[in-house]
Amino acid sequence: MTDPVTAPEATNRTVGEPCVLLKLGEIFLKGKNRQQFVRMQQANVRAAVRSTGVPVELTVREGVLVLRVTHGEGQAAERMTAAEHAEAMDRVAARAADVPGIVRVCRALRVDKTPEAAAAAAIALTSPASGTFAVRARRRDKRFPITSEQLNVLIGDRVNAAHGRKVSLKHPDTEIFVEVDAREVFVFTGGQPGQGGLPVGMSGRAVVLISGMPLTGPESIYKAYALVRGLDRFQGQSHLYVVPFGKAQQALATTGAGRLQVMAQRRLMLKTAEALAGRLHASALVTGDSLGQVSSQTLTNITALDDAVTLPILRPLLGWDKTEIMAEARRLDTLAISELPDQDCCTLLTPRRVETRAKIDDLRRIEIRLDAAELAEQLALTAQEYRPE
Q1: pTM for the complete prediction?
Q2: Taking Cα atoms as reference points, which of 240, 237, 206 lies closest to residue 226?
Q3: pLDDT at res. 346
Q4: Predicted pLDDT at 315
Q5: For the chain, which terminal residue's Cβ has fewer other Cβ atoms within 10 angstroms, N or C?
């Protein structure tokens, strides 16, 4: 099948204008709130593709966002060669694929609203290479002179005549998609899966806890910064708040926490994050807990952690195993960063044996001796802010 991100070989503007189609998924099922979701998605896409340096125009169709190089007299598209235009759209497509809320990214040709123009684009997007094909036409505008089935047949006959390829409707090697819109027709093959989900920012703010705040040395700060910077290409507008937790951890060790040391320090981290969340108007905390991944992450202990704060704690990795987590980190290009050495405060000063069935009352008594609530507020005030560039 055609490479889903790379532009087709034929980019002659007489055949069609290179553009990018972003397919919306769950957003389109939001009923009366749909427009609010779509506006947020548009803003996120614009912010993301701005980094490509390509001036784009974004328009909304039914369940689709259309990205084109800015047109008009003296505008960018008028000064580009066909190859430059196609390469610019490649960069836009690759960047848009990182934006949550998009289920599919398609490099397409935008053509005049005629059956002949659609057929010419389909021929340009395919080649005489061996393999079968199928045409999947969708006529959104019922005023189009022929039906979807008739368009399938017409384009199929033209592609067969041009390239000698046979039709296979059930298991084609290449699928040619044709979408007839109100003002134009879009033709494309294949597509690249998007991130899915909902637009970033639609559900409010949350504070994500990243372990590794140091006693000394810059290694942990660098690692956390690199992780946030890497993930920011998906989220955008991330902020990193570094809390030096080492001294507080040492103070915990003097309270006689013993086997509860790890649980006590994790509860203190959550309390600190909650205090910070109050300043940032965030309504939830997020952790990387994975049930049974380490000895302290038992169901009993996770329940004891929930007791430490009033904000909800989201745990998206709770049911994942190590292999799945590493595979996702590899997909997001953060695995190599995660494997860098650092001073992890969860392993420093850790007792030889860790409590796996912590009692909430025992943890609360430790916190009273430490005045954990006041300490958490102080720690939140020491947070240093970094913004990934």
Answers
A1: 0.82
A2: 240
A3: 54
A4: 96
A5: C
